[in-house]
Amino acid sequence: MKDFMELGQRILQAQPFSRLLGTGLEHLAAGEAVLTLPVREDFLQQHGYVHGGVVSYLADNALTFAGGAEFGDAVTVEYKINYVRPAKAQRLRAEAKTAAAGKRLATCQCEIWAETEGDEPYICAVAQGTIMAK
Amino acid sequence: MKDFMELGQRILQAQPFSRLLGTGLEHLAAGEAVLTLPVREDFLQQHGYVHGGVVSYLADNALTFAGGAEFGDAVTVEYKINYVRPAKAQRLRAEAKTAAAGKRLATCQCEIWAETEGDEPYICAVAQGTIMAK
Amino acid sequence: MKDFMELGQRILQAQPFSRLLGTGLEHLAAGEAVLTLPVREDFLQQHGYVHGGVVSYLADNALTFAGGAEFGDAVTVEYKINYVRPAKAQRLRAEAKTAAAGKRLATCQCEIWAETEGDEPYICAVAQGTIMAK
Amino acid sequence: MKDFMELGQRILQAQPFSRLLGTGLEHLAAGEAVLTLPVREDFLQQHGYVHGGVVSYLADNALTFAGGAEFGDAVTVEYKINYVRPAKAQRLRAEAKTAAAGKRLATCQCEIWAETEGDEPYICAVAQGTIMAK
């Protein structure tokens, strides 16, 4: 468990784009990952919501981390995401888990929560994707 | 045509996240959009390729622009993306078009090209998604 | 609850393709649907497993029923399905639920279980899709 | 080319579900497949259109054939489909092609056309999926 977290932190810190955005790793275990992302002004789109590309990035990364914790090293083959509600939030939180895993492929699912202090968190996106062992 | 481009430029400049990354609009017409993104060091992941989240962002935005040019204002309901080859490139180029459009919904498709001066460009991702008139 | 089931049975019986295959409705409530399908010899593909098209059909229908029970009448806008394990089974069972619903659109998810008497059931596919109120 | 067609015909005939529905193979080459399906009364849903499950089955099979013609034997890992217009047709025609292929994975795309004698054919669905060499 501790090893998963150490490895996950190392990978996250080795991703310049995750450092640019400021992503945090809250939890990593076999087939489970939780990533968090404090929302900044420059993450928004033209209507003041978090840009879909930011939400997608976090979903993609969480899916890969969940699948990667199955396989060691892993890549995202593909994923799909449904934006279910505009994201107005201080923080995004991606909870990913493996729905099913074989020897080389895992199907992972992810919920993205929009969180703001004092408000009820809500799901702003759900994603499903295929992760492959490298 | 000129009006599409002016409107598209205005929307792109009104997206803080697109300004953060430096996205350019090359073409916008009814059901067609081409976006470009010069790759920076801080867009990479741990193996030196462009982070999937950057590729996804660009696909998402290009799909929305192509669908938005059908409807005026539009939102992305959902999309799926296949990463077909790691992106090692000086520039990403997203070419999106509408495959079919109804009164309120359009299905759009997008190819993401990895371009480097002196090399043959190649497709690094293909995406398909649903755009809805606002 | 009883009304949902009566309406659901009526719709299922009004679908010639569902009658051709022999689909049953086990449960239907707001945002929840369970469909079952006894597997016949003529549902298989060339390796003796249930054809992906049969699994897809059941996922599609379950997603639509779950979303339809949110909205009254509904259509499937799109969905994606991951085949996570070949389906060798006497019966397929699709369990669908709404992940999030707005006024006109719902995002639904579905697990397809492969069931054989005396064996442990297993998930052979997971799906996610967009359902729209008619 | 002739060999592709012979192999494709053999696989199609070895699929009991494809025989049940009556699918035909019109074209098969490296990364390309065209399947056709004459529509019968028992393929419909409750509003008189071809059931989405039939459209999905044909898309799934065409994607697999297109990818299979890259790899020899192949399975569908996943796909997504957008239903862009209700299918009222005498015949469905699925045109699939490979968008990009690596050593073991291919990303394929497919258009489903609704065809009726005397009417203009139209696209009723578009799909995109991942095919893996066996």
Features:
3 helices; 134 residues; Thiol Ester Dehydrase, Chain A; 6-stranded antiparallel beta sheet; homotetramer; alpha+beta
Describe the protein:
4 copies of one chain form a homotetramer. Chain A has 134 residues and is of the alpha+beta class. Chain A has one domain (4-133): Hotdog Thioesterase (Thiol Ester Dehydrase, Chain A, Roll), CATH 3.10.129.10. The first copy, chain A, contains 3 helices and 6 strands. In chain A, a hairpin with a 2-residue loop joins strand 1 and strand 2. The radius of gyration of chain A is 14 Å and the shape is globular. Chains in contact: A-B, A-C, A-D, B-C, B-D, C-D. Strand 3 (74-83) of chain A pairs antiparallel with strand 3 (74-83) of chain B.
What is the rounded Rg of chain A?
14 Å
**How many DSSP-defined strands of chain A?**
6
H/E series of chain A, N to C? HHEEHEEEE
CATH superfamily of chain A: Hotdog Thioesterase
What's the tally of helices of chain A?
3
CATH level-two architecture of chain A? Roll
